[in-house]
Task: structure prediction
Amino acid sequence: HKLSGNLYYNTTYHSYSNVLKKLNADYFTFLPVQQKIAKSILTQFNGVVQNNEESTIRNLNVFLKKKFQYSDDYSSNSFEDIVAINKSGIANDRGLIKLYCLLLSELKVDYHVLVAADKNEVRLDTNYCSRISLDEFLIYFPKHDSYLYPASQHLHYGLVPWWLIGNTAFIVTKDSEYTHFVGPNPPHFREIP
Result:
């Protein structure tokens, strides 16, 4: 499987350590041009509620769902590039996650990115990293123990798609460093309730 996975995807074989580094760079480290775009978008957003972070998150979610459209197109990187998304108003799920994370970062909201898979297709194996099991993205807010699924126009803050509930997710945080862990309750994984 290791060889066929590499040949099929034409990429190097992934380990959770490599995945963590890549996702950390994508969803927690932003370039100055991206930060400038975030500031520009946030000038149009008037939903910040002082001393109520959850209301601010809800308002931001509604604002972004009105302003940006979801596309399941992966033929072009422009649907994942913040500059292109800002111009076109269209993003795929990875692009939407980047956009949400960028804006949450600007608003100084603590968040984690959870990566999982449709439980009807595959269960995430905590000991074996597979690209197939890392294709659904959620944002988790530890302070509020709540979730956000940006790829759906119908699901709002606090709701998780039924096909992810009960599956295990890989946790990516701003400061995470992957360490191999054998045994129950590995620290980089959590079940989605």
